[in-house]
Amino acid sequence: MRLPRRAAAAGLSCVVLLVAGCGAETAPTKPYTGQPVEVAGSWTGAEQANFERVLREFAKQTGARVRYTSGGSDLDVLVSSRIGRGKPPDIAMIPQPGVVAQYAATGAAKPITGAAAQAVRAHFSPQWQQLGTIGGQLYGVYFKAANKSVIWYRTDAFTAAGVHPPVTLDELAAVSQTLVDSGTAAMTVPGADGWPLTDWFENVYLQLAGAEKYDRLAAHQLRWTDPTVVQTLRTMGRYWGSPRFLQGGPNGALQTTFTRSVADVFGPKPNSAMLYEADFVTTEIAKLGAYRVGDGARYFAWPSVDGTGSAVVAGGDAAVAFTGRPVTMALMAYLASPEAAAIMARRGGFLSVNRDLDTGVYPNSTTRALAETLLQAETLRFDLSDMTPRSFGGGNGASMWRLLQAYLAAPDTDPAVVAGRLEDAAGKAYGVM
């Protein structure tokens, strides 16, 4: 007889943690007492504190001594240097599948085996398993996910202008113009950080070109000079270059960081009405305290193009093992469990694609809806820039980041020229993978 999913998950948890005594007659043991295990990640602040709660629970159950090391925005530098010294962290939380692929190619990353692999197959959909698979072997557990296909807006600004959330890109342009006419800048764009601009490209491209070409472009099986890329850039440039659509214009956007952009829309003295970025905006909105998520601060899905259906661009942090020790794989199995996901989910600022996590643990209906969209989306693709080589789209100073910043600075540039520059950079990056 097949057990219900949650009963099967509970039984698997006992195997994963190697805890003797899952039955009533045997006392639990702690099989990894005193054994050190290190996890590296980019998380800091509240996010780090919440993740450390997860690690403490694993330590409590297994006796392991777990340490978290934050690499901040230089996580890849930290991991690479530690690998070079022969002392890698046991696990790293890596947001770029392209970077994971490079580590796997060199043998630095270790395949997920045993109970850890069983846990991933039990709790994650085939699509998310595939995102963690390289060359037929499983390498990544997507512990944290992000919904990158939402635009956040101030309800008071929309009410004052008499507009409603748009459904199509044409409607977005019309709403933006009405907001401008009412005296409010339409959109804040954090152009000082290159990655939000890649997210703009990915959403427009997925809507305009479709999933198949999106996949081919991510793998560089389609050149960046393809007409669909040029059309996407033209669509972006038209919006970015529209008078007063962007707070401060293109030059102002290039001086605006992500954190600043949230304050410019949802701070005590807001300057514009909308901000495009992922669900993690909610954490920054809450810090500011001026608007409440789900009330004064709401979101709508990224608008479709010419009547295309809904599609979602996702991001995420995958747990990747760099040692094959049993305690490492036990922790990987725990990170794949709904129990571990629930610890962070109930505190907010976190989405999980663990299909056995009870979405009722999320702290509010907004976060719950964002998570359910990731689980239910008919068309879902991972962040394209994160799937490319690190020199092109995977980190600070990457070519795609810089070239889109240059396009933001001069949105009247011929998009075919921008596409050609992207293709030149992609060719070089993929040539050295």
Describe this structure in words.
The protein is of the alpha/beta class and 433 residues long. The chain folds into 2 domains: 22-146 and 314-379, 3-Layer(aba) Sandwich (D-Maltodextrin-Binding Protein, domain 2); 150-310 and 388-431, D-Maltodextrin-Binding Protein, domain 2. Helix content is 48%, strand content 14%. The chain is built from 20 helices and 12 strands. The chain has helices spanning 5-16, 45-62, 75-84, 97-106, 114-123, 126-131, 155-161, 169-181, 194-209, 211-218, 227-240, 249-254, 258-266, 281-288, 326-335, 338-345, 365-376, 390-393, 399-409, 415-431, and strands spanning 36-41, 65-70, 91-94, 133-134, 137-138, 140-147, 150-154, 185-188, 272-276, 297-301, 312-321, 380-382. The strands form 3 sheets. Strands 1, 2, 3, 6, 11 and 12 form a 6-stranded mixed β-sheet that branches. A 4-stranded mixed β-sheet has the order 8-9-7-10. A two-stranded antiparallel sheet has the order 4-5. 50% of the residues are buried.
Second CATH tier, the architecture of the largest domain:
3-Layer(aba) Sandwich
The helix content is 40-55%
Q: What distance separates the N and C termini?
A: 47 Å
Structural class based on helices, strands and sheet pairing: alpha/beta
Strand content: 5-15%
* Record field, number of beta strands: 12
Low-confidence stretches: 1-13, 15-25
CATH class placement of the largest domain: Alpha Beta
CATH superfamily of the largest domain: Periplasmic binding protein-like II
Q: How many alpha or pi helices?
A: 20
Shape: globular
- What's the alpha carbon Rg, rounded to whole Å? 22 Å
What is the count of structural domains? 2
Major sheet details: 6 strands, mixed
Mean pLDDT: 92
Quote the CATH topology of the largest domain: D-Maltodextrin-Binding Protein, domain 2
